[in-house]
Amino acid sequence: MASITLEKVSVSFPVYSSATRSIKNRLIQSATGGQIRSESGSDRISVVQALQDINLQLESGDRIGLVGHNGAGKTTLLRVLGGIYEPNEGRVAVDGSTVPLFDISLGMDPESTGYENIILRGLYLGLSRSQMRGRLDEIADFTELGDFLNLPIRTYSAGMRMRLAFAVSTSVAPDILLIDEGIGAGDAAFLQKASERLKLFTEQVSIIVLSSHSEELIKRMCNKALLMEHGRVVGSGSTQDVLTQYRQRQEGGGSVEISAPLPLEIASKPATPSDPSAWAMETARFLREGRWDAVDVDRLVEEVVSLVDPDPDRDLIEGQLTYLLVQLLIWHWRESERSGLRRETIDQVRHQTELMIREDKNVVDAAEKSLESAYKKARSTAAQRMDIEESQLPAKCPVTLPLLLDRTWFPGQAAADDAVASRRAADA
Amino acid sequence: MTSNTVNVQSPLLQQLSHGLEPEQLKKAWRDIFEGWRRRELWATLGLHDIRQRYRRSTLGPFWITISMGVMVFALGLLYGQIFGQELHDYLPFLAAGFVIWGLVSAMILGGCTTFISAEGMIRQLNAPVSIYAYREVWTAVIAFAHNIWIFVAVAWWYDVDLSWNALWILPAVAILLINGFWMALFFGLLSARFRDVPLIIGSIVQVLFFLTPVIWRPEMLPDRALLLELNPFYHMVEILRAPMLGHTPSLSNWLAVLLIAVVGWGVTLFFYSAYRWRIAYWV
């Protein structure tokens, strides 16, 4: 469960000119201190108060839009949330893995190939090299860059670099995602594909904080918003309200009065049933008040049962199986796609899955149980990826778990097809 | 509440008092520790730094080796003549000295740009900032690994007797790296705030090259031992050069280098705890 708490956070910025950065001037200043002070006042270094007295409480499910004009402190706030700036006053508590997505082309090495850069960006995001290798194929598929991935990216066009950066940045979902401005991406067809992926990606993130000047983007992505002005939060609430408030203030011109920061009333929004934490708090309140009629008993029972039968690995193993099945389906149905790289990926995923299974008997059961649902997902993904109808692929999973994890087996080879046939016969 | 009145008066005092809070030391340790755990990242970045420097040249990083080789042979022949030294003694001595000097000076000079050159990444990436110090040290180590072959070739040609003293090479390299790491953190921090520091350090290192027995032998300076003993670079070069040439390293050299490490780390930890959190604002 991710959360962010800011209490009375203030950030001030020294503005250094070359004069204050040079030791000579510092030495002269201390030697002739009084004089210079009398000339330029007591603050020899000008300090900009970038954030003042910010109080925030963000919970899972929050999608916060930061609104305000340039210099209002939006980017500074994002950097504080990302742990890049440590405030000089106040307390910041961030629970959950955080990825700041400010400049998605950050740190690309022009001399390295596309594949190397995919791995490099993964390292930036805090993943290990081997974790990245497991994802390489999926990311490479998404970029549609094909053989270009073997060339140094200095040969790429700006659009191609963007695709690459975007594909990697959205391959791992963190708990908390911080986005500065909109993420633009190349051509229209890619943009369509990108927005789907962005949607899938953002659905997995528990908290998103997005700073943008685009009202449309904020409306589409966020359910709450903060209005910032001169380093303070001057308004908060639903997206619509805050955007209206922002527009009014803009029309009011420069003479906007800065009111005291309003307390952020996020909990006052009616709880949506899909938000688990809000639902839990609400149910707890009903129970305490003895209002059984208001409690969603079925869901409560389900939640309580899930407490004694935790299946934490199930999602993980299912994701792993799904990925493996997608790769194998493509392998089977597209002979042109049988590259050495794909073979390596399949091998790698099999190996990882085997390791997971070997460690724990429960995982084997989980894997057996989730095989069908994994196949269902894989079937639709693979059909989409290969641009064919789902009905062209077998409706039920055609392989057993041991065969799926057999590292010598690749579908479409004679021996393998025999194995499937004999299994079908046995089933019949 | 008393600190509040101070805060209003001076933002600089306010920063310092925030930096001196006890938890900052813990955070500094965690930063260094977490930085080590991200070694796949900084190792890759360091490798890219070297590759970037020699990109698209046919020989690539082996230019490091070649330029070192040319330097050692040219200066070896010249100064061997000037000082009247036997080449089979002097050339291995010079090659070892140059290679070690290369490592130490690269760690200091590179250390000055630790945070300045990573400006973009520091402001965008929520990684521990110590990774940039590891990266500079690692870059210096890669260059060292290219240079060392000049010494190996010279030592092999002149048949330098290695003996068991060669075992001292590893701990010597280790202690040099430990020292290099605090230098990268400390000078990096200082340079990020005061942009003159890299230039000052640059000229100091240049002068120290001539004051340190790399080209000349310590024995050539009989009466000015103080000039040697007070030069930290002398000790750092000597603890590694002695075992490379098959001699036993002297206790005083080792003690001096250990002292530099302890004092250096003490000072660095203090400043790093107090000002690490300001780096993102400075760059």
What is this structure, in a nutshell?
By secondary structure, chain A is of the alpha/beta class.
Task: Offer a few descriptive terms.
heterodimer, A: 428 residues, alpha/beta, Rossmann fold, 3 domains, six-stranded mixed β-sheet, three-stranded antiparallel β-sheet, 17 helices, 9 strands, 50% helix, globular, B: 283 residues, mainly alpha, 14 helices, 76% helix, disordered N terminus
Structure, described:
- The complex is a heterodimer of chains A (428) and B (283).
- Chain A is 50% helix and 15% strand.
- Chain A has helices at residues 18-21, 23-31, 33-40, 74-81, 114-124, 129-143, 158-169, 188-204, 215-221, 239-251, 276-288, 297-308, 312-333, 340-359, 361-386, 401-405, 414-427, and strands at 3-15, 46-59, 63-67, 89-95, 98-101, 176-180, 207-211, 224-229, 232-238.
- By secondary structure, chain A is of the alpha/beta class.
- Chain A has 17 helices and 9 strands.
- The longest helix of chain A is centred in the last third of the chain and has 26 residues, at 361-386.
- Chain A folds into 3 domains: 1-97 and 174-264, 3-Layer(aba) Sandwich (Rossmann fold), CATH 3.40.50; 276-308, no CATH class; 312-427, no CATH class.
- Chain B has one domain.
- Chain B is 76% helix and 0% strand.
- Chain B has helices at 2-9, 11-19, 23-37, 39-53, 62-83, 87-112, 119-122, 130-157, 169-193, 197-211, 225-229, 232-244, 251-275, 279-282.
- In chain B, helix 8 crosses helix 9 (169-193).
- Mean pLDDT of chain B is 88; it is low at 1-9.
- Classes of the chains: A alpha/beta (428), B mainly alpha (283).
